[in-house]
Structure formats: C-alpha cells, structure tokens
Amino acid sequence: MLNFDIDPRRSRLRDPRDHLVSSTSRQQKKRTSTFFATKQAEAADEEDDDDDDARPAARSTRRNPEAAQILRPASRLLAPRSSLPAARFSAFRPAVFTQPVAQRRSYAAPSGVKEVTVRDALNEALAEELTSNEKVFILGEEVAQYNGAYKVTKGLLDRFGDRRVIDTPITEQGFCGLAVGAALAGLHPVCEFMTFNFAMQAIDQIVNSAAKTHYMSGGIQPCNITFRGPNGFAAGVAAQHSQDYAAWYGSIPGLKVVTPWSSEDAKGLLKAAIRDPNPVVVLENELLYGQSFPMSEAAQKDDFVIPLGKAKIERPGKDVTIVTLSRSVGLSLQAAAQLKSKYGVEAEVINLRSVKPLDVEAIVKSVKKTGHLIAVESGFPMFGVSSEILALAMEYGFDYLQAPAIRVTGAEVPTPYAEKLETMSFPQEDTILSQATKLLRL
C-alpha cells in the first residue's frame, strides 16, 4: 500500500511514485524510455485484437506491479491531449458567452423603432455593461441560477459565468455590505434587492457606508455601486411590499436616485447609474417589467445613456404642468388625454426620470409657460417627492403661478391587501383628472 505525505515545498499531496523516474540513473532512464516505447507499441497492436487476446496481457501487468506503477503515470503523460480527463470543477463553471451584444439581440436590432419590455431593456443594459467593463458584476438573491426573481438577469449567468453573476444567501445586510466593500476596493457592483422593502435591512450599508464615504474621505475614496430592484406599488402584496422609497433615498446626501418609466428610461438610466462614480439607487416598478414601450433606433445602440438629472417632456402642453415619476407617468398621460378630449385642455406631462439630482430647471420652465402645477407620486403625502417639487416651484417660480400648486399622492395609510382598498390607496387616472379640473376650475 502506498503512503502519501505533504510536501511543504509544493503544498500538495506527494505521491512516492513521482520519484520512480526522477531518481533513476541516466542509463536506467534510457532503459525506462525504451520500455515505455515498447509497451506503447504493444498496446497499439493489441487494440485490434479481441477481448480474449487482451486478457493475458492484463494478467501479465498484474504479475509485474513495479512495471504497472511506472507505466500508468507515463501512459497518462504520453496519451493524446484530447483523452485527458476534464478539470475537476469544469462542469460547474458556465461557459462565458463571447458573442457581441449587438449580435445577440433578437428583439432590438438597430433598424427602426422596436417594441421592448422594461424587463428586456434592463437585461440588455446589464449585458452591455458586463461586456464593456470587466469591473462590473451582479449579486443578489436568485439573480444567477433562477435568472432573477423577475427574470431581469435572465441568461446572464450563462453568458458571463458565476464570478460575475452571483447568487447570495437571504441576508440583505450581508451581501449589501459585501457589495459596498467591493465598490470601495475599485469594482463596480450592481446590488439587486428582491424588493426595496427588504433593503431596509441594509440601510446602514447604503446610507452610512456607500453614501458618506466619499465625503468623509475628503473626496479620495469613491464608491461606484448601483442598488436596483422593484419599488413602490404592486398588485396584492400588501403593506410590507408596496412602499415607495423615492423620498427616503432622495433625502440622503451622497446618493443619486433614478425612477425609470419606459424601456428607454430603464436602459439609459441603468447604464448611467453603473457608470456613475457615485452610489446610485435605481427604483424600478414591478408592474412595469412586462409592459412594452417603443424603443428608438438610438436607444437600441450599445452606447445609449440617459444623463442623470435630466427630465423628459412626455407630452407637451400649454395649460397645466403635471410633474410625475415611475408608473405614475402612464396614469398622468391617460389623465392628460382625458383633459384634452373632454375639456380641450393641453396638459404638459414631465417624466422626472431622476429624483436626485432633480431637474428643477425643466419644472420651472414649464410652470412659466402653463401657470399651473400638479405633482403626482405614489408615495405617502407627508414629506414626499411631490412636497419637494411644490416647494421648489414656490421658491423659483412663484410669480408665474396663476393658482396654488397641488399634489396627488398615495394615501396616509399602510397599503391594504384588499383589491378595492388597495386601488384607493394610490393615484389613479380618475384622481388626477379630478384634481386637474378643480385646479383649472373646469
């Protein structure tokens, strides 16, 4: 029986058979190599024989154990490279998909406007950034094997491997702290929360570590990290999964906050967030993931990025300004269409896109034109995003307002589970329309 011991110089198990060849004399090496060649030739000749002829050769090998000990390792070395066994863990490492991103697209080829879901737009943004920047990686609960709780990271594990798409335990505090540490070390992590309601478990890592380190280091230590996941109102998930955190994170110095609505928003803002040297919170909406939006030819290109802090006028108008964000943009556009069809009122709908930095210039410029302002959000009425919009409008555009600005917000109540009560807790098309008619005295 062979004994194995530890070779301290090589830090591995040492096999005594390793010295059978290396310790022989030069003449013995020559005889051994001749012996190897003879045995290899005999083995090649015996391949054409039947099984009965091969059995005596096998028995002769068993009679000469020393020859077997020498022959077996040598035969492995002399064997063709293709017959060598695979690496031990190779079966567990997904192959990296090296095909260019533009060639992988089946839904957004740059040849005119295409309909793309928000989910696919986010997936495309992640794939492009993973391809262009080796420092980018994704981690979170179920992001790899399960393709993400909402399938936003679908296929990324197969393309980029398990070193860049990482499943984590169910511990927001733990994996968020790991991501912040990686960002402080120079990497660009994308930290996904299954819902931002769970991110409260990691509020210390987000606020005290990620947001403040750059300032506390005197501008020396950046923290390039992106926090993303579903936020705000969803369907039938009750009080603990429906809160809107835009105002929470928007109040923290050192954090940037974006709230995409359309597919172009989702792709352009996420790419900008990953490239930004500061920590950025990307607040998506669960109900928008499966919704399709037209994506322009420019937005389908790999270099498409939406600058942070720039709002977009989704519908131009001259009578009233409706400033809104996330899913409330679609509801506001529906209300604006009703105002036009019923009253002939032209409402200008502004999609904030970015909560912080806030595009105050775009808001004030629109108020100067229309003279009326409505702020719409799904968050709570007290100390919300809409409150900040109205305060800024009063500071910079008071002389242009023809009537007091108003807010349309979520109700001051934890989100009910019952469907009808849930609907009443958030702004709807009818709510926005009703408040607009009161403001304009229609």
From TrEMBL:
<keyword id="KW-0630">Potassium</keyword>
<feature type="compositionally biased region" description="Acidic residues">
    <location>
        <begin position="43"/>
        <end position="53"/>
    </location>
</feature>
<feature type="region of interest" description="Disordered">
    <location>
        <begin position="1"/>
        <end position="75"/>
    </location>
</feature>
<dbReference type="InterPro" id="IPR027110">
    <property type="entry name" value="PDHB_mito-type"/>
</dbReference>
<comment type="function">
    <text>The pyruvate dehydrogenase complex catalyzes the overall conversion of pyruvate to acetyl-CoA and CO2.</text>
</comment>
<protein>
    <recommendedName>
        <fullName>Pyruvate dehydrogenase E1 component subunit beta</fullName>
        <ecNumber>1.2.4.1</ecNumber>
    </recommendedName>
</protein>
<dbReference type="InterPro" id="IPR005475">
    <property type="entry name" value="Transketolase-like_Pyr-bd"/>
</dbReference>
<keyword id="KW-0786">Thiamine pyrophosphate</keyword>
<dbReference type="Pfam" id="PF02780">
    <property type="entry name" value="Transketolase_C"/>
</dbReference>
<keyword id="KW-0560">Oxidoreductase</keyword>
<dbReference type="InterPro" id="IPR009014">
    <property type="entry name" value="Transketo_C/PFOR_II"/>
</dbReference>
<dbReference type="GO" id="GO:0004739">
    <property type="term" value="F:pyruvate dehydrogenase (acetyl-transferring) activity"/>
</dbReference>
<dbReference type="GO" id="GO:0005739">
    <property type="term" value="C:mitochondrion"/>
</dbReference>
<keyword id="KW-0670">Pyruvate</keyword>
<keyword id="KW-0479">Metal-binding</keyword>
<keyword id="KW-0809">Transit peptide</keyword>
<dbReference type="Pfam" id="PF02779">
    <property type="entry name" value="Transket_pyr"/>
</dbReference>
<dbReference type="InterPro" id="IPR029061">
    <property type="entry name" value="THDP-binding"/>
</dbReference>
<feature type="compositionally biased region" description="Basic and acidic residues">
    <location>
        <begin position="1"/>
        <end position="20"/>
    </location>
</feature>
<keyword id="KW-0496">Mitochondrion</keyword>
<dbReference type="GO" id="GO:0006086">
    <property type="term" value="P:pyruvate decarboxylation to acetyl-CoA"/>
</dbReference>
<dbReference type="InterPro" id="IPR033248">
    <property type="entry name" value="Transketolase_C"/>
</dbReference>
<feature type="domain" description="Transketolase-like pyrimidine-binding">
    <location>
        <begin position="116"/>
        <end position="291"/>
    </location>
</feature>
<dbReference type="GO" id="GO:0046872">
    <property type="term" value="F:metal ion binding"/>
</dbReference>
